[in-house]
Each structure stands twice: as structure tokens, then as C-alpha cells.
Amino acid sequence: MSRKGLMEQDLSKLDVTQLHPLSPEVISRQATINIGTIGHVAHGKSTVVKAISGVQAEVVQTAFKVELTDCELSLKWGKAYGSGKEDSPMCDVPGFENCRMKLLRHVSFVDCPGHDILMATMLNGAAIMDGALLLIAANESCPQPQTSEHLAAVEIMRLQHIIILQNKVDLIQENVAINQHEAIQKFIEIPIPERNFISPPNMIVIRSFDVNKPGFEVDEIRGGVAGGSILKGVLRVNQFIEVRPGIVVKDESGNIKCTPIYSRIVSLYAEQNELQFAVPGGLIGVGTTMDPTLTRADRLVGQVLEAGKGFKAAKAEILMLNIGSMSTGARVVAVKNDLAKLQLTSPVCTSRGEKIALSRRVEKHWR
């Protein structure tokens, strides 16, 4: 179901060679530019995100807060979006009340924590930024420790487009603010980033969730959700994917074994907007058919989501089939192209076209 003011996406007419970060059918539904907020702790990063976007980043599922003395400390990077709910909302600038605004860009704000003990979390967020807002509080000397560290971090990440914001000027006298302003670089424009829509899709996973709640009925249970930003290529609904390295275990000899996770995309979301396809840039939620225990509590953070070829069965492999309320083992007796013939260990009554679930044994568990 499409929300009011959103451009239609038709998967049957998708031509990735014609896509652009500013294509109307793209920016109407999802952000294509990631803007990070960086700087020292308590310099006002989360407050600025709320002031610009109208959304408090911490209320989104991807961030949490804890009281620390007299300030609020962001523990995880949060996200908020700078896009109106209407396609052409009325302008609220004095003198232009009768004019309508036009959506030119759709951005995601990646709100990073500023405390020194959470530097690793900040670096995870920096990996997907196209530009950044560096917050510098005018009521403190410049630079503060994390101001320097965050700026060095984004330089290491080769982030060239940074806007420096002098914040909290209302707390000091005008002459003090002017003196500090002279030492701070002026705003710089963030250009449209170049995006690669042609290559096979590649997405960095920076959050993962189990969206199911206790008490859900069996038919209400949904697969795991991966959140992140697409670096290149286009993801589509119903596309087969694989997550690598996947399930990592050690055998009895101490050798590490990696088993890729094969799945299929069942939904794509940017903010609350449902997508038929998603392009590089912005923060995307990917609903899958994965076992939700694999995505629970950020277990897939740092993994890479790519295009896959679906479930690959090998001859003589033993699988677990769930048909209705019945579970039974099955042995693969033949494989040809995308078809497989299975021999069940016990008879099950079913019908043509009925949905079944296949599980494969991974580290003594069926998944």
C-alpha cells in the first residue's frame, strides 16, 4: 500500500541503467544520501538532528539512551530522515506561505555517539556517510578530544564533504561567539554522490533485528531484518541473497568454518516507505526469510549482504522439512537445475502448492 504523495515504483519496468540518486521514484520513498553528525559528547548532535528533521534519532529502534550524570549519552548510532510526508507541502517560510515546496533531495541523518568509550560505534556509522555535520559547542574550548578524533576518523574514511556547525551560541556573549567563529571552517556544500547501479548489489549490515514479539501466532512470524546502506547495485523484492561470512563456528580442532546464509528478500523499507527496489545511499531495512534468531540483537553487524542464487541442495544431503505442523527428515536423491527430488523419512499428507520450510543442519542445529 502506497502512502500519500509517494511516486509509484513498478518492478516490471525497472531499468537500473536509467536510475539516478535524484530519480523522483527513488527519492520519493528512500534516502540516497547519508549525512552523519559527529563531534564531542554533549555538543548537541542529537538535538540538531531533531531540529533539522523533526525526528528524535534516539526514538527509532536503532538507538538507546542512558542517563550519565547531567547529560544524555547516545549509546548506539541513531537514524532520522529529512523528508516531508507530502509530495509538495506548503512552505512555512514567512512571505512564501502560498507557495509549495519541491522535494530535491532525500537524506538520512546518522547520529553518532560522541563519548570516547563508544568510538568503535562511531566508526561503524562513519563507514556509510556521504557527508557529515561536525558539531562544535561554542561554550567549550575547541577542539575537544572527540572533536579531533571524529574529524580524524572521517578523514581516514576519505569523507571529503563536511559542514562545521558552531552550536550553543546562545549560551555565550556575542563577541566570544564571533572570536570562535573565526577559527571554524565555514559551511561547505555536499554534492550529489556518484552511485553505481549496474554492479551486483553489495550492502553493509550495520544493524539487524528480530521484529517478532512474544505471543505471535505462527502465521504472524516474520523473518529476520537487516539494516544498512547499499554501497553499489540495486536490491529487489523477491531477490535471492546471501549474507557472508554468515554463520561462523570453530570445529574440534579450532579451525574456523564459515557457512553463508542464503535467503530471499520479502520486503524493502526506507523510513516507513515500502520499496519495490532500493538503490545505493540512505539507510534501508531488508526483510528476509532468514531465521530471526540469526538477526536478533545485531548478530549480523559487519556482515555483507550480496545477491545470491537461492538455496543450493547437494545430492545425498539430509534436510529437515516442516509441512504444516509436521516435521520430518528428507534425503536429497536428485538435483537438476532449480529442481530437487527428496525422499522423506516418514510419510506426510500435503497438497500441491502448499508452503513448506526447508532447514539445513548447521553446528548441531537445524536452521
Write structural notes for this entry.
It is a single chain. The strands form five sheets. This protein has a six-stranded antiparallel barrel with strand order 8-9-15-12-11-16. The protein has a five-stranded mixed β-sheet with strand order 4-5-1-6-7, sandwiched between helices. Strands 19-18-17-20-21 form a five-stranded antiparallel β-sheet, with no helix packed on it. Residues 58-84 and 115-119 have low confidence and may be disordered. The chain is built from six helices and 21 strands. It folds into three domains: 33-181, P-loop containing nucleotide triphosphate hydrolases (Rossmann fold), CATH 3.40.50.300; 202-307, Elongation Factor Tu (Ef-tu), domain 3; 318-366, Translation factors (Elongation Factor Tu (Ef-tu), domain 3, Beta Barrel). It is mainly beta and 367 residues long. The longest helix is centred in the middle third of the chain and has 12 residues, at 145-156. Helices cover 12% and strands 35% of the residues. The radius of gyration is 24 Å and the shape is elongated. The two termini are 32 Å apart. It has helices spanning 24-27, 45-53, 119-126, 145-156, 174-181, 292-295; strands at 33-39, 65-68, 71-74, 78-82, 107-111, 131-137, 162-167, 202-209, 225-232, 235-236, 240-250, 256-270, 273-275, 277-278, 284-288, 304-307, 318-323, 326-336, 339-344, 356-362, 365-366. It catalyses: GTP + H2O = GDP + phosphate + H(+). Residues 32-188 form the Tr-type G domain.
